[in-house]
Amino acid sequence: MIRETLTIAVDFDGTIVEDEYPRIGRPIIFAFDTLKKLQNEGHRLILWTYRKGRTLEEAVKFCEENGIFFYAVNQSFPEEEFDASYSRKIHADVFIDDRNIGGLKSWGEIYQQLVGAPAPAKPKTQKKGLFSFLK
What we know:
This protein has 135 residues and is of the alpha/beta class. It has one domain: Rossmann fold, CATH 3.40.50. It is 24% helix and 10% strand. The chain contains three helices and four strands, in the order E-H-E-H-E-E-H. The chain has helices spanning 31-40, 53-65, 107-115, and strands at 7-10, 44-47, 72-73, 94-96. Strands 3-2-1-4 form a four-stranded parallel β-sheet, covered by helices on one side. The radius of gyration is 19 Å and the shape is elongated. The model has no long low-confidence stretch (mean pLDDT 86).
């Protein structure tokens, strides 16, 4: 999946935070860490959410307080003006959403898939024999 930079559209409720809409839920583990790392690597983050008005402003502010500053919010680029005669779909290389088929992967798995990093090796477990307590 790796390119020089990606434009990544990410949902808010159920993806960055637990779904408590219209309130803001607790952050999902590693969501902000992963998004900050992606942002620091030069990837563009777009907040792509159902929220609008006050609840959208609260979500953007919450993300900023947690170190995430979006390239754009509910649009493909900051200068884009919404026109109801065109599709609401935005342009992004990747969409991260809890409504994916199969659900939301862990943020560690998401990062690994986006940057092409191998999954960490699982530690080998030794089988315990009948007399292992004597060792």
